[in-house]
Write a structure and sequence with these properties.
Low-confidence stretches: none
Distance between the termini: 36 Å
Order of helices and strands: HEEEHEHEEEHEHEHHEHEHHEH
Number of helices: 11
Number of domains: 1
Oligomer: single chain
CATH superfamily: Aldolase class I
Helix content: 25-40%
Strand content: 15-25%
Mean pLDDT: 96
CATH class: Alpha Beta
Largest sheet: 10 strands, mixed
CATH topology: TIM Barrel
Bound molecules: ligand PBG
Number of strands: 12
Length: 328
Amino acid sequence: MAHAMFRPRRLREKPLLRKLVRETALAVDDLIYPLFVVHGRGVREPIGSMPGQFRLSIDELVKDMKDVASVGIPGVLLFGLPAEKDPRGSEAYAEDGIVQQAVRAVKDVVPDLLVLTDVCLCQYTSHGHCGIVEGGTVRNDPTLELLARVAVSHAEAGADMVAPSDMMDGRVGAIREALDDASFTDTPIMAYSAKYASSFYGPFRDAADSAPQFGDRRAYQMDPANGVEAMREIALDLDEGADIVMVKPALPYLDIISRAKAEFGVPLAAYSVSGEYAMIRAAGRLGWLDEERAMMEALTAIRRAGADVVITYFARDAARQLERGGAS
Ligand code: PBG
């Protein structure tokens, strides 16, 4: 008798068979939607390099949040554009700063939606760097105190989780201590632990007006060539009290996501950044690929690599697609 041959195609023949043995499920429950908030009223300004995304004033933001919650997205990640920038980024930790106001407004209207906040200074500083600049360099330790103030001000406004993205050493510990001292012992920290100095942040810097005015971020964000170092960064942040660790960007760093999940087995987020979004949108617009399918494939791949949480500008489109039954 002929040798019984394993034929992988047997389980690919019918859509329901494929679904039956599918290893990775992309669910709306795992998505976080990032948004940009600006001062003013009635502002809904399209972001040129991120088609489908807008800079929103708080009144407009609140309208969108109802829709976001209604499609089942569990949470949003807020970025703010200040009225004015200064060397110390003071609006970042002002009680009536744009993000602090936005958090209050969203929690007021859609209390169940999780509101996460980006903790960083770069949108707020006149020089566009993520920390205090002295003598032409970004100073680590003096920056920690400001970042801690940002995080506490977000928690005071009602943020459900704070997400430091600055890449200063020791910031998770400093933020944890400050939150605890202010009685926010239950506010979790999602640390941008392995955040690479990536060209894929281009459209975001355009959207958030946060490009550095001199130099670049390579003196504090990670070298794209390094993997072992990412594991060390994650270990450090966990040691300092991070509740969720993050790899960013996502698609060019799937190996890092996979290693992080295998080595640490802790809740892991991946940030599919503005450039990843822009690439798919742009190619879709040119008719070079099927945008909807590319989006679902990319998000599923990030989950398959090991991310529990996917932060993506596609969150609303993906949620709608999943509602219709998702991939077959
Ligand atoms: C701020 C910050 C950046 C992003 C998230 N938080 C930009 C940067 O580090 O320059 C990028 C997000 C994206 O590209 O979607 N530090």
